[in-house]
Amino acid sequence: GGSSLGEGHMELMVHRRLLHDDAFGVGEPLNETAFDHGLVVRGTHYLTYSYLATPECDFGCLHRRLGEEVMLQPIISFSKTSMSAYDWKTTFNNKWTGLKSSLPPSVHLLTLEPWTDGSLLLRLEHMFEAEETSGLSDPVTLNLQ
């Protein structure tokens, strides 16, 4: 939950644990546990300020871009292997350089995955609705060749 009780102030309540009823509506202690320990909440909060918006990228545009960056970060994982680093690098393709130019800022590569008979399934999405943000809501034409 969050509130702003005064100009320039913001209060976010991530998790509340009380061993006694505080008379603020629940009518019982708030003592959630897991594995015989009180719950611990961890996370990251992102605050965006509208003054960062520009005519080309308004607040909605900034919010979507931040969401894309946060939610689609690469996942790095590790695995035991008997292969040397050189063998791994020469056995597996670790990068893809199929695009000859960058996609327009309003176009997002949604999926690129193996399909049937050695072909690929490519899904692109336009991130903005019509008239949502200046300039970036315009239709886009791409040459897939």
List keywords for this structure.
about 140 residues, 2 helices, flat, two-stranded antiparallel ribbon, Glycosyl hydrolases family 38 C-terminal domain-containing protein, 6 strands, GH38_C, alpha+beta, single chain, two-stranded antiparallel sheet
Overall outline? flat
Mean pLDDT over all positions: 80
Spatial extent as radius of gyration: 24 Å
- Uncertain runs are none
Specify the biggest β-sheet: 2 strands, antiparallel
Q: Say how many strands there are.
A: 6
* Strand and helix order: EEEEHHEE
Helical stretch tally: 2
Structural class: alpha+beta
Trace the largest sheet across and list its strands. 1-2
Distance between the termini: 49 Å
Domain Glycosyl hydrolases family 38 C-terminal: 106-144
GO cellular component, one term: lysosome
Organism: Cherax quadricarinatus (Australian red claw crayfish)
GO biological process, one term: carbohydrate metabolic process
Q: Could you walk me through the main structural features you see in this protein, from its secondary elements to its overall organization?
A:
This protein has 145 residues and is of the alpha+beta class. Helix content is 14%, strand content 16%. The protein contains 2 helices and 6 strands; from the N terminus they run E-E-E-E-H-H-E-E. The strands form 3 sheets. The protein has a two-stranded antiparallel sheet with strand order 1-2. Strand 3 and strand 4 (37-38) form a beta hairpin. The protein is flat, with a radius of gyration of 24 Å. The protein starts with a strand and ends in a 19-residue tail after the last strand. InterPro entries: Gal_mutarotase_sf_dom, GH38_C, Glycosyl_Hydrlase_38. This is Glycosyl hydrolases family 38 C-terminal domain-containing protein.
